[in-house]
Specification:
The structure holds two protein chains of two kinds. Chain A is α/β, with parallel strands linked by helices. Chain A is built from seven helices and eleven strands. In chain A, strand 10, helix 6 and strand 11 form a beta-alpha-beta unit. Chain B is built from 17 helices and 16 strands. The chains are: A alpha/beta, B alpha+beta. Bound molecules: iron/sulfur cluster (SF4) (2 copies).
Chain lengths: 252, 533
């Protein structure tokens, strides 16, 4: 199939330089509202908080507090008269407050095997996870591989609010993994239930079912935010070297 | 567009025929929304529906069950015509819990009835297979979450790990065969779904899918919400078709409110919906290439998908276009330079897709995997009422943009449909490629037609009910909405292309070589988020 190989060669290298350098390519991330910003007009903080359908924004005095875990990326605070300051980055994965696990270092630090469970997501989160295998992100270069076998999995990546019907399969997938195992919750559904939970069909997030180590906010989080979570988990999550002008996040 | 005079003529012809056949057993009325409404006695319900479907060429859009204050009301909505909409309506006292099936004549209604039985507790007499469907073994017998008395704020039923596993209603019927379970957790990044493959050696005889692992009760969750909040659900229950479903929901709401969406907003909606189709089809094509295991071709297709996501992110801030379509129009307007940039990217992606697809055509090892695989015949597609690229790969031209035009598709945008006849995996791939190209053209056309103007109108809070529809990337979607006096959602019935097409998936998954299963899945390209709701 030489024509395919030629085609492949002709395409050239496309892969992001993250985490060595920040990637400021437009459209790579939707960004997130900035936490703890001081607003010029204190009243504006209340108006902005009222616009958020997810309860992710809160006015405290003249400051606007943002809880990224709740953000469902409805973009209503990104635009228009209620627009709040917006952070165009993507390094926003965080260790879960409850996590008692250490970083996956040493032998696991170099080659990490992932297993992915769709616990009731809308497909957009799953689509962003899939992009990590895209030549643009190529997570293999950083030692991350999706494994077909639970016995070899180090990390469980979970999307979705954990529906009643996915609870047992999720627990089984976790149970089949050898230790030390880590769990990454991806997307607002997986963090808080998002728009779909807690409800009569879904939990209020993966942490209600399994111990979660790293959380990735966003609806959906962009591929680089998920990659950031993997780096964080393996002790390689330092801040990337800045380039002069990173993308501005949400288009204005 | 139908002339009013001929519309009335067709209407009368239909009415005469119904009256002639069933006499006093049917009552016919003409509600203000222009549909023809037929209220049959239950004994002739199935006959009337069968007549519309088989003899008058109507397609089933959805079945809406409602538990009203005084009575049960079931609406069977058919589209086609003229007249474009025929509504068959059944009312019965709340203490009655059964009615005759129509699935004996209209097979497309099969899953609608099963769902209603599960979620409302109504049973359909004569339906061959009721029971275990949406709600799995975790739910106590007799739980009917769509009933008004059901408390939706309670926590989920807690299934324990020790409960027995599901077995299908019918078991192995070939000698020496065994059942091979697949899913709901897969080895790669795959949506949750579960299949039992009846297998002899390398050959799979048939496939029994079990769905609804992702049932989030979307219809129930929407109840009581304002339309500004409910649209967030319409947009997010299947995030890879956000624009289409938000649009269909908004169309229902706008019909109830009696508002006309500004022309600029209609064109922007069409541009974004076509972009979404374009990106969805690129991803579906990439999925098919993956399933055949062609590595270089896979990466080539993957690049296009990520570039499409980036171009949306760069132009409007969200890679999946969340937050754009709202009741009354668009949440905000976009500048010409932003939209022009989007068009330029689409144009270059479309050219590269063209190069790729020409390479596919001459790649015999690729074609060998797709040809004669996962065949759905035209007759089967019609019986099951299949929709979208799957139906169009089997010779059925079902596209709401041309057959029931809405928004800008009514006048400003003319869609060149594409139909293939073979009904196999390769036919479906060709449909996807042709449609992606057509969407690329439509995006440019819609943007070129934009004129300055408002993009949103106020939606007054008025009660009422209406249906909104849209040709989503995977096919026809129908959103039936009833609003109460405060303008809040009282009932939301959501029929999606994946729900419709999963019903026919097993047709394509009979008698095949085991290693072809991923290919059949990929060429059907269905979503469980969209089907399970
Ligand atoms: S984008 Fe996030 S923070 Fe902003 S209003 Fe929407 S949900 Fe709230
Ligand atoms: S967090 Fe958002 S994008 Fe992710 S699964 Fe939930 S609704 Fe979809």
């Amino acid at each position: 199939m030489s024509k395919w190989i030629l085609r492949g060669l002709a395409t050239g290298v496309k892969t992001t330089r993250y985490p060595r350098r920040h990637d400021g390519t437009p459209g790579i991330s939707p960004g997130l509202p900035e936490t703890g910003t001081e607003l010029v007009f204190p009243e504006a903080a209340g108006a902005a908080a009222a616009v958020c359908p997810a309860g992710a924004l809160e006015a405290e005095g003249g400051r606007l507090g943002a809880d990224p875990r709740r953000c469902i990326h409805c973009m209503r605070c990104a635009w228009g008269s209620h627009a709040v300051p917006w952070n165009g980055g993507y390094e926003w994965a965080r260790w879960a407050a409850e996590s008692s696990s250490a970083k996956l270092a040493g032998a696991f630090g170099r080659s990490v095997h992932l297993r992915i469970v769709d616990a009731g997501g809308c497909d957009a989160c799953l689509s962003e996870v899939t992009q990590l295998n895209n030549p643009y992100y190529n997570m293999h270069r950083l030692g991350f591989f999706v494994t077909p076998s639970p016995r070899h999995a180090d990390v469980l990546l979970v999307v979705g609010p954990v529906t009643t019907h996915m609870r047992r399969p999720l627990l089984e997938a976790y149970g089949a993994m050898p230790g030390p195992r880590r769990v990454i919750a991806v997307g607002s559904c997986a963090l808080t239930g998002g728009l779909f939970g807690p409800s009569f069909t879904a939990s209020g997030g993966v942490a209600e079912v399994l111990p979660v180590d790293v959380e990735v906010p966003g609806c959906p989080p962009p591929p680089l935010a998920i990659l950031h979570a993997l780096l964080l988990l393996t002790g390689r999550g330092g801040e990337a070297e800045q380039v002069p002008e990173p993308g501005k996040g949400a288009a204005r | 567009m139908t002339e009013p005079a001929s519309h009335a003529m067709h209407d009368q012809a239909l009415q005469r025929e119904a009256a002639g056949r069933w006499g006093a057993a049917v009552r016919i009325s003409h509600p203000a929304d222009g549909a023809l409404e037929i209220s049959p006695n239950p004994e002739v319900l199935s006959e009337v529906c069968g007549w519309l479907f088989h003899e008058r060429g109507y397609a089933l859009a959805t079945v809406v069950a409602q538990e009203r204050a005084q009575a049960w009301r079931l609406l069977y909505l058919f589209w086609g015509g003229p007249p474009a909409w025929v509504r068959v309506r059944i009312e019965m006292p709340l203490d009655r819990t059964s009615l005759p099936t129509i699935a004996d004549r209209v097979h497309a209604a099969d899953w609608h009835e099963r769902e209603i039985e599960d979620l409302f507790g109504l049973s359909f007499v004569g339906h061959p297979r009721l029971g275990d469907f949406v709600l799995h073994e975790e739910w106590a017998e007799g739980t009917n979450p769509m009933r008004r008395s059901f408390d939706a704020s309670r926590p989920p039923a807690a299934g324990s790990a020790g409960e027995p596993r599901w077995r299908p209603g019918r078991v192995v019927h070939a000698a020496g065969a065994f059942m091979m379970p697949v899913g709901p957790v897969f080895s790669g990044a795959a949506q949750a779904s579960h299949f039992l493959l009846e297998t002899i050696g390398e050959e799979v005889l048939r496939t029994i899918p079990r769905l609804f692992y992702k049932y989030r009760g979307v219809e129930k969750l929407a109840e009581g919400r304002t339309v500004d909040r409910a649209v967030l659900i319409a947009e997010r229950f299947t995030g890879t078709s956000a624009v289409a479903h938000a649009w269909a929901f908004c169309r229902a709401v706008e019909t109830i409110a009696g508002v006309t969406v500004p022309r600029r907003a209609e064109l922007l909606r069409a541009a974004f919906a076509e972009f979404e189709r374009f990106r969805h089809h690129l991803a579906a094509i990439a999925g098919i290439v993956h399933s055949t295991g062609m590595t270089v071709a896979s990466s080539q297709a993957d690049l296009l998908v990520e570039e499409a996501l980036r171009s949306a992110g760069a132009a409007v801030g969200h890679r999946y276009l969340f937050g754009q379509v709202v009741p009354g129009g668009m949440y905000r307007d976009w500048r010409k330079d932003q939209l022009d940039e989007l068009c330029r990217t689409v144009e270059s992606l479309a050219r590269r897709l063209d190069t790729l697809s020409r390479m596919f055509r001459f790649s015999s090892s690729f074609l060998d995997r797709l040809e004669q695989v996962g065949i759905v015949g035209r007759g089967q597609a019609e019986d099951f009422g299949l929709v979208g690229p799957v139906a169009r790969g089997s010779g059925v031209e079902a596209d709401l943009r041309t057959m029931l035009p809405y928004g800008s598709y009514r006048e400003l945008l003319r869609v060149e449909g594409h139909v293939e006849q073979e009904g196999d995996g390769y036919a479906r791939l060709r449909v996807l490629i042709a449609e992606a190209q057509e969407s690329a053209r439509l995006i440019r056309k819609a943007v070129a037609r934009l004129e300055p103007g408002p993009v949103r109108v106020e939606i007054p809070a008025v009660p009422g009910e209406a249906i909104g529809w849209c040709e989503a990337p995977r096919g026809a979607t129908f959103h039936w909405v009833r609003l109460d006096g405060d303008g809040r959602v009282a009932r939301y019935r959501l029929t999606t292309p994946s729900f419709t097409n999963w019903h026919g998936f097993h047709l394509a998954a009979e008698r095949f070589a085991f290693q072809d299963f991923p290919i059949i899945m990929a060429t059907f390209g269905l979503s469980t988020a969209e089907g399970d709701r």
